[in-house]
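Annex B. Sample input.
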Amino acid sequence: MPVMDGLEATRRVVAEPAVDSAVIVVTTFDRDDYLFAALDAGASGFLLKNAGADELISAVRVVAAGDALLAPEVTRRVIERFAAASVPVTTPVAVASWPLADSLTDREAEVLRLVAKARSNAEIARELYIGEATVKTHVSNVLQKLGARDRVHAAVLAHQHGLI
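Annex B, continued. Sample output.
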């Protein structure tokens, strides 16, 4: 990119109020500094250039639906970094005292635990014997109740508060 790099382009695209869009960064840089800089710039997705065509198409659909997506290779690193950024709460008593956890139904808490384990909606639906549309509804409710920006943020919160 001769005029600016991908991070600056991401910042400009997401900052443009007249444009309702999301950015998926596709890069050869499998480095934490670039990953976190892309997320900080406002990227809704982060894939490595070795992603196959099916994965790219799926990523566009996921992000277009308002969700976030990270390459599987980097998801664990994101969760670990965010979890390390604050004092983790790991005792059952502390989890029970997390006020936002009380606002979740049992099913929503179950869905959150699976989201935090990087399960897709289809995988959650199969594991819980419910429809994918129902999973999407539960995920939306979880995000709203927790004030989470996206699935990754919800997963981080689940780890921080000992739900995983």
